Each structure stands twice: as structure tokens, then as C-alpha cells.
Amino acid sequence: MRTPISFLAALAPFVSAQTVPAQLFSGLIPQKVLATAKSLPAPIQYPQYTDTSVGHWLDFVPDTWTSGFFPTTLYALNTRKTLCGATPTNGLSTGDWVTLGRAASNGLIPLEAHNNQGHDVGFLSFPFVEELAINPTNQTALTAVKAFAADLAARFNPVVGCTRSWDTADPTDFTVIIDNMMNLEILWVVYGLTGNETLRNIAITHADTTMKNHIRADGGSWHVVEYNSTTGSVIRKRTSQGFSDNSTWSRGEAWGIYGFANMYKHTKDPNYLATARRMGNYFLKNLPSDGIVPWDFNAPLIPAPRPADSSAATIVATGFLLLGSLETSAAAGKVWIDAAINLLSHITTLAWRPSWQSLLSNGTVNWPANNFLTGIVYGIIALLSSCRAQSNNKRAAGDYYYIKAGNDLISMGLATCTGS
Ligand SMILES: *[C@@H]1O[C@H](CO)[C@@H](O)[C@H](O)[C@H]1NC(C)=O
Ligand SMILES: *[C@@H]1O[C@H](CO)[C@@H](O)[C@H](O)[C@H]1NC(C)=O
Ligand SMILES: *[C@@H]1O[C@H](CO)[C@@H](O)[C@H](O)[C@H]1NC(C)=O
Ligand SMILES: *[C@@H]1O[C@H](CO)[C@@H](O)[C@H](O)[C@H]1NC(C)=O
Ligand SMILES: *[C@@H]1O[C@H](CO)[C@@H](O)[C@H](O)[C@H]1NC(C)=O
Question: Which family is this sequence assigned to (predicted)?
Fold first, then answer.
């Protein structure tokens, strides 16, 4: 495939050199995560987002779509300790991260038998995928990933060509959200373990249908597409968490960029690369000059300030690291990698909050539901993942996140474990 020269030039203003923020490696990260791990409620509940004033975590029962992120954060600190060692300043010697991660995962095991999370079983599987990277023969984790993949596969409708995201009162109203692109990874994980071609084909069909119906000509995206499950036709395109039906919700755009880059990683189908690029292009072209990701690209600027979404910023940064590592030329890859570092730098400046329990503030959980200006647990995991990616060419096989992106950052000399 040709190097997309035109977008390189068009995006130049957004990719001026920034340095990797040192906060990515701060000893405050393990300190905060350990304190949260030690204070998880019993019976277990999981942090999802914080209050808006002092940044204290609000905890939710295990049957919640975000429950896998905190256990995965604990595993991510183990990975960092493996990569960087424990030093007096990085704080990584304070916790036995694998033991903590395993203990925190246990509350998710009952969800294999029953949960109400629809397509989000992909997110719930993350800590078990991390466990398998450490211990590939752990039967509990193997059973969990297979059960979650089977759950998602059971939501596939061949007439529509998608897995169903949310359940609806009218079962013929088949709802698919752009976020669902992230959950396809569990199908690839279990395809890798078992060779079950059905899982792979479902992932591909879902991505192809989404590519056709969720992405606009300009590279923006609809949050929700409703299909008729009997006829397969599109009933309507709308938003749930965005500003308006035709706006582009930034976190959805970020999930899409990551998700299509990930599909390209698994298949090498150039249509996925082209889609990830188109969406990435939209994201950067619509980014305001301050480099801060707004919660929706079409939300009005007035009254200022238009709320940011730090989770969209960190998710898209990891998506850009992945995309950058997969690009067809080093020059094209550098555009995305530089953009990722830029976004991380700007969001750290805005939202790093030493006094909060979360690492970052300025998350928008759900603006229409008046839930914003919070910390967000998935923003954190994305942040951790992006820093681990910087040196994960030393990581053991089995990592499902950002291996190639990390290799590129290291080989370009852009970061070390100390952020220098
Ligand atoms: C296997 O994984 C589960 C869940 O991730 C964990 O609770 C358990 O401790 C692990 N078992 C061993 C022997 O490591
Ligand atoms: C492959 O996965 C599908 C979907 O979960 C399942 O129905 C099928 O039985 C699996 N095939 C095998 C051989 O296990
Ligand atoms: C889907 O199509 C069927 C058959 O035309 C119809 O009966 C059903 O009401 C439709 N469902 C929706 C949600 O439009
Ligand atoms: C949204 O886009 C559709 C076409 O995709 C158009 O029919 C509709 O009028 C648009 N709505 C708004 C509010 O712009
Ligand atoms: C970031 O959050 C602070 C409060 O935590 C708020 O005052 C500020 O307006 C927010 N900025 C943006 C761009 O969302």
C-alpha cells in the first residue's frame, strides 16, 4: 500500500514534537493503585469513576461493564515491574501485583455463568487474558476467556452481520455501538487458543458491517446503529452518549481507531488499515489547537470550557501507538506515534491530579447523563498500557495490547522507563 502522503502534510500542525510526560512513570501511580486495591469493598466492588470534587472512586458491583479494568491495572503494574524493575523512585516494589491482580479478578468469575453486560464481556475478559500471559495453563483463566468469547459469539446475528451490543425491549431492534469494536479482541484471543474459525469469522463480519454502516465519509462515526434483526436493514443511526445523532463522540471515535487498527493487526486486510487511518485523520483534524480532546467533536464551544474527555485522549493514544506500529512506512507510523505522545502530553498537563485517587481528572463518563469532570478507570488503564508499551519489546509473548507500538517507540528512542 502507498504511504498516505496527503494526510502526513495535512496533519503536520498536530504532530510537532512533544516529549513523553514524566508522570507516566511516576511513583504516584503504584502508590495510588495499591491504596485502591487495599481498600476494595467486601464483598468486592470495582472502581469505575470518581466524584467531581475530591476525586474519590465510586465502586460498582461486579456485573458492570467496567469491572475488568481495575484488576487489569494491577497486572499492568506487574508488567511494568518486569520491564523496568523496582527502584526507590518508581514505587513498584510496594505491591505483589500478580497476587493482587488475581485476588481482584476472583469477583469476576461468577460472571462467566451469568452477566448483563452484553458485548462488554470482551472488557470483562481482560484480566484473564493478562493471567494467561503469565501462566498459560491456568485453567480458571482459560475457562473464563472461553466462556466470555462464547457469550459474545452467541450475540452474533448472521442476517445483520454483527454481534448485538445492547439488549433491547423489542428483540428485532438490534443495537450495535462503535464501542463493540474493542470487544472483538476476545474472539481473536480464543481463536488463537483453540483455532475455532467461527470466532474469527464473527470478528471479521462484525468489523466489515461496522465499517460499512458506522463510519461517515469524513471519517467521523455514529455511536449507535440500529438494525432490524429479521431483515438486516438499518433502521436508524443515532447517538446515545454523544452531543447529537449526527455528531462524533470522541470516545467512540477512539474505540473505533483502536478497534480497526487491531483488526488490521490480526488480518492484514488493507480496508481496516484505511478505516483506522480515516478515523485517525478525522480525530486529529478536529482536535482543537490546545490539543485537548473534547468529549464530542461537535459539542458547542460556548459556554466555555467545553468539557474534555481524558479517557478518549488516552484510549486514542494507545490506538495511535498501535496504528503507528502497523503502518506501511516509518514516516507514516511516526505521524501517529507523535500524535499519541502529543495527546498524552496535553492531557497530562490538563488532568494529572496528585491529590485524587484516580491518576487523571477531566473524564466525561456520560455527558447527556450529566456525568463528567471525573476520574475514569479505563482512562487509567489506557494510560498505563501506553507507558508499558514503550518498552514492551522485552515483554513475554502473549501480550495482547501494544507490542509492535512499543517496539517502535523503543527503536525510535522516544522513551525509557524513567521518562527521559
Ligand atoms: C488462576 O487465575 C485465577 C483468575 O485469574 C486466579 O484467581 C488464580 O489464583 C490463578 N491460579 C493460579 C494457580 O495461579
Ligand atoms: C466454535 O465457537 C462457536 C461459537 O462459540 C461454537 O458454537 C462452536 O461449538 C465452537 N466449535 C468448536 C469445535 O468448539
Ligand atoms: C423488523 O422487520 C419486521 C419484518 O418486516 C417487522 O415485523 C419488525 O417490526 C421490524 N422491527 C423493527 C424494530 O423495526
Ligand atoms: C443526520 O444525517 C442524516 C443523513 O445521514 C440526515 O438525514 C439527517 O437530517 C441528519 N440530521 C441532522 C440533525 O443533521
Ligand atoms: C478540567 O477539570 C477542572 C476541574 O477538575 C475544570 O475546572 C476544568 O474546566 C476542566 N477542563 C476541561 C477542558 O474540561
Answer: Belongs to the glycosyl hydrolase 88 family.
